[in-house]
Amino acid sequence: MNAATLYSALSWLDLFGIGVFAISGALVAARNGQTLVTFAFFALVTGVGGGTVRDLLIGAPVFWVQDSRVPILCLAIALLIWITPVKFWRPAAVDWFDAIGLAAYSVFGAAKAMQLGIDPVPAAIMGVITASVGGVIRDLISGEPSIIVRPELYVTAGALSAFTFVLLAQTGMPGILAALIAFVAGFILRALAIIKGLSLPAYRGAGSGE
To answer: Which helix (H) or strand (E) holds 40?
Structure first.
């Protein structure tokens, strides 16, 4: 399967990843008791932030400017969360929607970069950027500690999805199967990080006196 066909076959991951990230953004606004306008802003910025940075880096047209479905989806999600009773959303919902989006968008971001001829390793990095930047922007504008500086695994889970997908695609595995395996791998790692608090070892040199 060539890169163009692979990208086309995985395009469903784009709207899926955008949607779940938009949900996570709107839930942060809900948690902070914000207005509907702020809900819409959080949903849009979280949904498209990573993909926007990816497209700027690889020289592609910014995807949501070219496709009106994307902002419409984000705004519709913001409205849906706004009218939904708060009891429907558990406090951990942001983390779980974010985990789904992280795994899905890591795969799609890498696939899009490959479709545009980006080499495998940079393509995987584009997947990580696609998946993580939206959450970083969401946390920044909400005044919360950024997800990437929290101790549990986050970017590592996105990297697992992106690099697994690129590696499997390079071996000739069908794109959908490669995407499914990569998505599941990244999601499971992120889920374990949420449940078990898994983290990488922290740098200890600053406190060693050396």
So the answer is: helix 36-58
Token pair for 113 = 């970069």
Residue at 158 is within a domain: yes
One-letter amino acid identity for 9?
A
What count of Cα atoms within 13 Å lies in the side-chain half-sphere of residue 154?
Answer: 18
Residue 24: what residue type?
S
Helices first, then strands: H and E counts in the chain: 9, 0
Q: What is the pLDDT of residues 96-148, one digit of tens each?
A: 988 998 999 999 999 989 988 999 999 999 999 999 999 899 989 988 888 77
3-state helix, strand, coil in the chain (%, to 5): 75, 0, 20
Task: Give the chain's domain count.
Answer: 1
Cβ atoms 179, 13 nearer than 8 A: yes
Does 61 fall in a domain?
A: yes
Angle at which helix 120-142 crosses helix 155-170, to 10 degrees, equals: 160
Alpha-carbon gap, residue 52 to 48, rounded angstroms:
6
Label residue 210 by pLDDT band (50, 70, 90): very low
Domain residues for the domain of 54 are: 3-199
Query: Percent of the chain beyond pLDDT 70?
Result: 91
